[in-house]
Amino acid sequence: MSKNSFFIRYLESNNSFSNMLQIKVFTFNPFYENTYILYDETNKAVIVDPGCYEREEREELMDFIRKEHLQVTELVNTHCHIDHVLGNEFVKTTFKVPLSIHQKEVAVLKSVQAYAPSYGFAGYQASEPDQFLDPGKVLQVGNEQLKILYVPGHSPGHVVFYHAESKTCIAGDTLFQGSIGRTDLPGGDHGTLLNAIKSVLFTLPEDTIVFPGHGPETSIGAEKEYNPFVGKRAGLR
Q1: Other Cβ atoms within 10 Å of 164 Cβ, number
Q2: pLDDT tens-place string over residues 115-138
Q3: What is the rounded distance in angstroms from the CA atom of residue 41 to the CA atom of residue 127?
């Protein structure tokens, strides 16, 4: 998969075509980060973790939004490492929408400006959060609601978004196909992440589809069985 390749997945809620969450994923920047657009039949949309940095990446994002006649209502970050926030300010200013993050991610977001040039992103534009995501509450996408779940360990304020009707989880850098998020960055903690995956993500239905921050989608059931860090074969359940 090239870094600009993409796919679209339609997920039905209650088997009704008039009520469904739609997910568009782009793979952006040298970290091959997954940027998501969530929307429904109202054409209201939320952008999750915009990693678009280059002009071509931003145009690709914009082209899809224009083509689908979407109205972007909010920008959210699962967490605020550099690869997930490179397009924050672009999205905020282009669509005039608020940025929502977990309060524990404020320091993580602020630190990006200091180290971005050393990663080759000298043109990074810093962004400020406008409101905070509260675990247990919901992220509204048109008529659809995704529950906000707190899954720290990769970063101190990492959250994921779970859509119960379609059994879909936008998981950021918590759980991957056959892996988990790294925990050697500032604010990371390996034990915290393992515990959060098992106590939060692994309580979701096993047929829940996990859309991660990098790489292909997987399922809760597959990772409970085969994941070498948190699955049955790791002896951690």
Answers
A1: 14
A2: 999 999 999 999 999 999 999 999
A3: 30
User: DSSP for 78-144?
Assistant: S---HHHHTTHHHHHHHHT--EEE-GGGHHHHHHHHHHGGGGT-TT-------EE--TTSEEEETTE
- Alpha-carbon span 218 to 220, nearest angstrom: 7
> Residue 186, exposed/middle/buried by CB under 10 A (0-12, 13-18, 19+)?
exposed
CATH topology for the 6-234 domain:
Metallo-beta-lactamase; Chain A (3.60.15)
Residue with tokens 């678009």: 52
Q: What are phi and psi of 202, to 5 degrees?
A: -75, 0
Q: What are phi and psi of 140, to 5 degrees?
A: -90, 125
User: Closest Cα partner for 52 from 16, 92, 15, 105?
Assistant: 92
The Cα-based distances of 156 to 82, 103, 169, 189 in angstroms read: 15, 9, 19, 8
Tokens 């669509």 map to which residue? 95
**Contact present, 12 and 20 (Cβ < 8 Å):** yes
State the CB neighbour count (10 A cutoff) for residue 114. 9
- pLDDT tens for 143-188 read 999 999 999 999 999 999 999 999 999 999 999 999 999 999 999 9
For residue 51, the tally of other CB atoms under 10 A from its CB is: 26
- What pTM was estimated for this model as a whole? 0.92
**Could you give the C-alpha distances from 15 to 18, 19, 138, 165, in angstroms and in order?**
9, 8, 22, 9
Provide the token pair at 116: 């971005």
